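EI: anyone free to look at a 259-residue chain?
SC: sure, send it
EI:
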Amino acid sequence: MAVARDTITLDSALQDTLTIDTTPRDTSYVIVMDVPESPQLPTYHHGEERATSWLLLALLALFVTVAVRYRKNSKYISAIFKELTNVRERGNMLDNTVREVSFMMILNFVWALSAGILLYGAISGGGEDMVGAGMCVGCALVYEIAMTAAYLICGNVFSDARHARLWVRGFWAAQSLSAAVMFPMAVLLVCYPGNAAWGVAIGWIGYLIAKILYIWKGFRIFFTQMSSWVLFLYYLCSLEIVPVVITLYTACRLTGITL
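SC: here you go
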């Protein structure tokens, strides 16, 4: 019969289809690993890598020096804080040891380096010219040396050598304590110059607080009468405001930045 033959033919075709579909395929599985995107690191122009390396090396060298010296005597910081707040000469001369003064000097170098980097960050808005940052470091170092001489001269003129030395040590102490805040912010600015505006602000706020404490110490040392208020205003303008303005102007001229 034709119908039976056609049915057999269809069944054979269906069986062949099932046979083909159930045949195991030669499939290979592989693992594909995508390379992660590289982090966005700061880019520098030609010649700036060397300047950045020198700044980081100087910061690291000073940090290691401070850490080694602090490890030998953990009371250095408390002694420096007393220098900032105390207005009387120490009764025991052994308290003011050579090691303590040398430790404070190292911290002052840390301040000069950190302040110069933060100064450049403040006037450039977080620029990446590390050569300009090096110029600002020089300005900060000159400022620190000049202010030491100015405080020493004014202290001897308006008082005596004993109070002048007390005043200068207070200045060194203020610089040393503020360096603890400014140093990490300077490292942040060097590593990520385009994203450290808040770090610059924190660093300078720390310095401002230490400066206010130092000004208060100077007021307690020299100004004991009501008529001294006029002299105090002269002091603020001549020794606390004008040198900062001159340093800022010099840094802008050296780096070619217009505020």
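EI: The two ends are 105 Å apart (CA to CA).
SC: 👍
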